[in-house]
Design a protein that fits this description.
Elements: E1 5-15, E2 21-31, E3 35-39, H1 46-53, E4 61-66, E5 69-70, H2 76-86, E6 87-91, H3 102-113, H4 117-130, H5 146-157, E7 164-168, H6 176-192, E8 196-201, H7 204-207, E9 212-217, E10 220-222, E11 234-236
Parallel strand pairs: 2-11, 3-8, 3-9, 6-7, 7-8
Antiparallel strand pairs: 1-2, 1-4, 4-5, 9-10
Length: about 240
C-alpha cells in the first residue's frame, strides 16, 4: 500500500444470508486527510460499505485494509480494539446517553480505553471548545437542540483521536441551515485535525462539502452518474 493511503478495499463483495448482494466487487482507495462523499439511493449499498470500513461487518469476499492492517481478517476482540483506537463514528441518530452530562458523553470512549480521569476531562473540554459547546459541558442532552446534540456526538467521535471519521447521514435529522453548520464543522475538522472523513449521504448539498463525490448504484461504485451504465465497478480516488 502507498504511504498516503489510509483505506483500501480490494474486490470486496458482500452477500447477506438471504442471498441479497449488497456490494459487488468494490475496489476503493482513500488517501490520508481526504474528505469524500458517497451518494446513492436507498438500498444502493452505502451503509453496508461504511460498515465494512468501520469494522462493523466483514466482506463475504475480498479484503479491507485500514492503515496497512487487513481488518477483514481480525477476530471480534481485535476489531473492537481497532474501532476504538482508529475510527470515529457519527450517525443520523445522535446516540447520546441521556443520563450523562455533555462532558461525560464525550469522555465515554476514553473510559472504555482506560484513560485516567484528568486526561479524559482535559481532552473532553478541548473537544467541546472545538465544536463550540464549552459552556454547555454540564447540560444533559435533552437540554440541547438537535444541532448541539450532533456537535456533542462529533466531539465524542473524536475522543480517542481517530485517523478515520465515518459519517452516516449526520445531517439527516436537522434542518438545512443547521445541517450546513454541521458540515462546515466536519470540513474544518478534516483540515484542522487532519482526519480522513468518509460521508454517506443522499443530500447533494451536503455531499458538496467533500473534496470528491462518488456514487453508488446497485452495490457498485461510479465516478459520476453519467457512467453508471458501464460495467466497471472499480474506482480509485
Amino acid at each position: 500500500m502507498e504511504k498516503e493511503e489510509l483505506v483500501k478495499l480490494e474486490n470486496v463483495t458482500k452477500i447477506y444470508d438471504n442471498y441479497t448482494i449488497a456490494l459487488k466487487n468494490i475496489n476503493l482507495s482513500v488517501r490520508r486527510r481526504q474528505f469524500i462523499s458517497i451518494m446513492g439511493p436507498s438500498g444502493s449499498g452505502k451503509t453496508t460499505l461504511l460498515n465494512l470500513m468501520g469494522c462493523l461487518d466483514k466482506p463475504t469476499y475480498g479484503k479491507v485494509f485500514i492503515e496497512n492492517v487487513e481488518v477483514s481478517r481480525l477476530n471480534d476482540k481485535e476489531l473492537t480494539k481497532f474501532r476504538r483506537d482508529k475510527i470515529g463514528f457519527i450517525f443520523q441518530q445522535y446516540n447520546l446517553v441521556q443520563t450523562l452530562t455533555v462532558l461525560e458523553n464525550v469522555e465515554l470512549p476514553m473510559v472504555f480505553k482506560g484513560i485516567d480521569r484528568k486526561k479524559r476531562e482535559k481532552r473532553s473540554k478541548y473537544l467541546l471548545k472545538l465544536v463550540g459547546l464549552e459552556n454547555k459541558s454540564n447540560r444533559k442532552p435533552n437540554e440541547l437542540s438537535g444541532g448541539e446534540q450532533q456537535r456533542v456526538a462529533i466531539a465524542r467521535a473524536l475522543a480517542n483521536n481517530p485517523k478515520l471519521l465515518l459519517c452516516d447521514e449526520p445531517t439527516g435529522n436537522l434542518d438545512i441551515n443547521t445541517g450546513k453548520k454541521i458540515m462546515n464543522l466536519i470540513k474544518n475538522l478534516n483540515k484542522m485535525e487532519k482526519i480522513t472523513v468518509i460521508l454517506v449521504t443522499h443530500n447533494p448539498i451536503m455531499a458538496k462539502y467533500a473534496d470528491k463525490i462518488i456514487y453508488m448504484v446497485d452495490g457498485k461504485l461510479y465516478s459520476s452518474f453519467y457512467d453508471s451504465h458501464k460495467f466497471s465497478y472499480n474506482f480509485s480516488i
